[in-house]
Amino acid sequence: MVQFLNSRRAFLKSASYKITMLTLGSGVLPVLAAEAEPLLDPLPESILAEEPLIKPKPLVQKKLGIALVGLGGYSGGQLAPALQETEHCYLAGIVTGTPQKAIDWKAKYNIPTGNIYDYNNFDEISKNQDIDIVYVVLPNALHADFVVRAAKAGKHVICEKPMAVTVEDCDRMIAACEEAGKMLSIGYRLHFEPYNREMMRLGQKEIFGKIKTIEAYDGMGDTNGWRLDKKLAGGGPLMDVGIYCVQACRYTTGMEPIAVTAIEGIKKKPEKYKDVEESLSWTLEFPGGIIANCKTSYTQDMNLLRMNAEKGWAQLSPAYPYRGQAGETSEGKMDFPSVNQQARQMDDFAMAIMEGRPTPVPGQMGRQDVKILQAIYKAMETKQRVEIK
Ligand code: NAD
């Protein structure tokens, strides 16, 4: 187990504050959630490493090989570039249904022919010693089958959010990884991002007293393709970006929601969004009377996480992008370094495998989110308050 060296210097009284934190290990983060378990107090005093004092010693001294499954926008735009910066893992292979992408990626990232698969011969990856981790970056409804196939092939797995479109699929994925003795994590990059980690600390440690309310909004101006198809996406913006609000409420409070009410927004583009919601507002109730008001949309840009507590407040705006987070509290501005979230996320998973410790973003966390998303949809459809058990 990695140890943390605590040295937190918080200058909360100044108009502008900066928290310097030192850890042993790079981007090594705490386990946050097991299903229905209170998340309280998982944070060590120190959260971030500006510069690790001592490099961790993995049990296995090698970089783990990652194969990306699905070479779309996120793989090409974020994950492959991040894998050029990772210390403990590297881009070893690809799985694609498009022959031209195989040619382009092979040339761009120097991927051996033997490490390139398509969706049909993917199971042969079991024989490939270069690949330790399979990272599933496909449309949401395809996650489950590929995670199960990857586990059966004897690989550790990272699966993109949302983990799946049903809780039953999540159970299948978790069971397959358990049976194979392999680790499963979800691509929750914000658990490795300093501003969001600060919200976890401020909220879970009740630095401003007990939380009263939360506002979490995440929406974007437009979308296209499979995200409009309920069969592939599982729903609309709630599945795609609203999930970040659910995550934010959980990690800011360190608690699990107990009930939800929800209202679908009126569609501005009913033809385009005929299959999925265009926008949605929902309210999560947490233990202790905490109320979280959340919004998501495919036709409105929004990006906020705000916590109002007994003795102060904190907010991030924007809260959820790949970079450029900004934050403020009732005591002053936050000032944290910009990090490559995806590189940290993947390095942490590689380290977790090599150290034999749990990932802080496990399959159970993804399953709990899918359960909450389904409760939100049920509340939207029935117009009733739905308890989350
Ligand atoms: P995308 O549409 O850009 O790419 C999807 C890829 O899947 C494409 O390469 C496509 O060819 C392939 N594919 C295989 N079978 C398909 C099918 N039947 N229909 C459509 N495409 C098919 O999508 P994306 O933005 O890369 O998203 C992929 C996954 O990553 C989603 O689950 C999404 O939620 C997730 N994602 C996560 C983040 C994040 O910040 N963590 C950001 C973006 C996307």
Molecular structure report:
- Residues 1-54 have low confidence and may be disordered.
- This protein has helices at 73-82, 99-109, 143-152, 167-180, 194-204, 230-233, 237-253, 341-355, 363-382, and strands at 64-69, 89-95, 116-117, 133-136, 156-159, 184-186, 211-219, 259-264, 279-285, 291-297, 302-309, 312-316, 327-329, 332-333, 386-387.
- The protein has nine helices and 15 strands.
- It is an alpha/beta fold and 389 residues long.
- The strands form two sheets. It has a nine-stranded mixed beta sheet.
- Nicotinamide-adenine-dinucleotide is lined by residues 70-75, 97, 137-140, 142, 160-161, 187, 189, 225-226, 232, 240.
- Residues 70-75, 97, 137-140, 142, 160-161, 187, 189, 225-226, 232, 240 line the site of nicotinamide-adenine-dinucleotide.
Q: Number of helical segments?
A: 9
- Range of strand content: 15-25%
The first-to-last residue Cα distance is 32 Å
Ligand identities = nicotinamide-adenine-dinucleotide
Low confidence ranges: 1-54
Structural category is alpha/beta
Main sheet: strands, sense, barrel: 9 strands, mixed
Strand order of the largest sheet: 14-13-12-11-7-10-9-8-15
Mean pLDDT: 88
Total DSSP E strands? 15
SSE run: EHEHEEHEHEHEHHEEEEEEEHHE
Descriptive key words:
single chain, 389 residues, alpha/beta, nine-stranded mixed β-sheet, six-stranded parallel β-sheet, 9 helices, 15 strands, 29% helix, 19% strand, globular, disordered N terminus, binds nicotinamide-adenine-dinucleotide
